[in-house]
Specification:
alpha/beta
Amino acid sequence: MKIALVRARYNPFGGAERFVARALRALAADREEPVEVAVLARQWQDAEAAPSGDDLPSIRLIRCDPFYFGSVWRDASFAKAVHARLHEESFDLVQSHERIVGLPIYRAGDGVHASWLSRRARVADAATRISIALNPHHRYLLRTERAMFEHPSLRAVICNSEMVRREIAERFSIAPDKLVLVRNGVDLDRFHPEAHLAHRDAMRRRLSIAVDTRVFVLVGSGFERKGVKHALEALQGVAEAMLVIVGGDKHRTRYEAEAKRLDVASRVRFVGPVSDPLPYYAMADVFVLPTIYDPFPNAVLEALACGLPVITTNACGAAEVIEPGLSGWIVAPGRTKPLSEAMRSAVDLGSPQLQGMSRAARRAALPYSLTALSTSLLALYRSLMDRR
């Protein structure tokens, strides 16, 4: 059985890739036949540096790296190269993680580009809105997205949230039965409230944070989309709390300057990107992600699994697994006041109430194990194989 995965920059041990690999392994066992997986990628991360012992099937790399100049040429040339290679050999299943017209399975991990631009425009200044309108790469992605979702060759779209599934159905002419909900999964054994308690005091000492301080943690790169500016503004209303920001952004210095302007810099820690966010979940009391648009960030599931109540927005697909007032708070995106009020509520919680929300957060994550994810993907692949 031959499977092709399309990923411009492929990391054999990335989250989506590992989940797909488990489902493919299960599919091979289910059909009692070997699975040959080919990855069509422009860039490939060396697997030798990755953890060993995972149940990944053997993978053959097909490098599709034609010359390009600029983002539009980059995406278009990669799509053309992928189609050329797929015509050279036959595969039983082809799943793309990139917006490429004419492929049978697409995982909408990045959501809908048109929705992201619409939400971004609501909170952007005039100069940013003009830049978005004139950017040729955005126009290319919008054209490609519509052509991809409405192409007759598309057999299934893997949606990681109801929000994404609804947006696709509302914006494009596509049969509803092609939109399959498969939410992300989390390693419930590794991300656990009790598994890494030793991190809490050590990490707080490392970041010069008192043991009894209420700490919010925000994990995510791309600070504009993650709503870091709104988190900094909201922190003004909770003077006794700390905010730890884990993630990267090319404009990080601007946000550090904004923290100084708002007079909250002494209560903010910009950590930068890390390979393992677990110690930062362990040191925190509440997870905050005031995102402008997020289909379903893994960080929310990880935080819930670690027992952190979550504050996020209704523009985040992961809000669908949070029960307001029990396992977290859901606020409107791009607005500082409701975010600050939610953070204030979290700070005002007594220890028994916070512990109760922590237990509820953990329960909210339990249905989204890696096994549940693999089972859902396996059911989809089995269905597509049977129909083929």
